[in-house]
Structure formats: structure tokens, C-alpha cells
Amino acid sequence: MQRTLIIFKPDAVMRGIVGEILTRFERVGLKIVGAKMLQPDYEQFFHHYEGIGALKTRKGEEIFETQLREMQQGPVIAMVLEGIEAVELVRKMVGPTEPKSAQPGTIRGDYSHMTYGHASDTKRGVPNVIHASADAGEAEKEINHWFSDSELVDYDNVHAHFTQPKV
Predict the structure, then answer these.
(1) How far apart are CA 22 and CA 79, in angstroms?
(2) At the fourth CATH level, which superfamily is domain 2-154?
(3) Residue 144 to residues 11, 119, 133, 150: CA-CA distances in angstroms?
(4) How far apart are CA 36 and CA 78, in angstroms?
(5) Residue 123 has pLDDT above 80, yes or no
(6) 56 phi and psi, to 5 degrees?
(7) 42 Cβ partners below 8 Å, 6+ apart?
(8) Handedness of CA 38, 41, 42, 48 (dihedral sign)
(9) What digits encode the pLDDT tens for the residues 78-100?
(10) Region of residue 43 (left: phi > 0; alpha: psi -120 to 50; beta: else)
(11) At 53, is the pLDDT very low, low, confident or very high (cuts 50, 70, 90)?
(12) pLDDT tens for residues 23-52?
């Protein structure tokens, strides 16, 4: 089984759509093994977006600082999901980073609509509802950044009956 990190961003929390989105992950067989609501400071986000994701290195200072400002506008809910090929499955369900490019049926396609151009013109970040780890290596680093081992729980859910090897 693979684990991945998702973060419901302030726009999802403040709009009250977290439960609706979370249900989608549970319905495909992913299980929640860690969850917490918090209001991280600049340093927490700095490590997440630059220390792990290299956003400033890849996209520049202005985009980086705008993203960190947007993320501090309200609380977030961080979760660790577990399942078969969880990282790839969650990325597929979430859709591309730019909501305009996200197909209907994806989380970003269904719950957001901002374009990079509009965000740039208005000097805002792109409120795209949710963060999802990009790959397995990033997922491991992000999970270790947001959660301690004692905050993650191992248990079987009903899907284990269909996904575990027969003995």
C-alpha cells in the first residue's frame, strides 16, 4: 500500500466543501490514516513549498510569495491517504494545478475555475482547493514534514478484503 499527502487549502475549508471532496477519496477505496486541522506559519509552508517542492526555484520569488500568502489566509486540513498506487490515483482525481485546465469530474475541474492569467493580473495565488503530492518520493517527504509517526494509524477497512493477498 502507498501513502500520499493531501492538504485542503484555505479556500476549500472556508467554502465548506472538505467533506464533499473527502467522500470522493473514500469512495474509490482510499483510507484516511492521518488527519489534522491547523493554521501553519510561514516557515511551515516555506519548507513544504521550497524545501520539498522547490516552487521558488522553479517558478520564481513572486509566485512563491503569493502562494505562501494565499495559504496563510485561513486554516488547512492535512491528511494522509493510503491505498493502491495512492499518489497516482489522487493526482488523477485532483486534476492539473491550473483549475481552467482541469477536466470536469476532477476535483479542481468541479470546484474551482481560476486561470493563471487572472491570478497574475490580480496579484493573487490560484485558489485550487487542494494540494496533492506529485510523486511517491515527494509524498514521503511531505508526510514526514506534516505528520509524526504517532499521528498515523494502521487499520483495515472494508477494502482490505478486496486488495490484500489471499493466504
Answers:
(1) 10
(2) Nucleoside diphosphate kinase-like domain (3.30.70.141)
(3) 24, 31, 12, 11
(4) 6
(5) no
(6) -65, -40
(7) 68, 72
(8) negative
(9) 999 999 999 999 999 999 988 88
(10) alpha
(11) confident
(12) 999 999 999 999 999 999 988 887 787 778
Is 131 annotated as catalytic? yes
pLDDT in the model for residue 42: 83
Specify burial of residue 6 (Cβ count, 10 A radius: 0-12, 13-18, 19+).
Answer: buried
Question: Which member of 131, 145, 159, 161 is catalytic?
Answer: 131
159: cell is 477494502
Separation between Cα atoms, residue 10 and residue 106, nearest integer Å: 19
Residue ranges covered by each domain of the chain? 2-154
Q: Cα–Cα distance between 27 and 81 in angstroms, integer?
A: 12
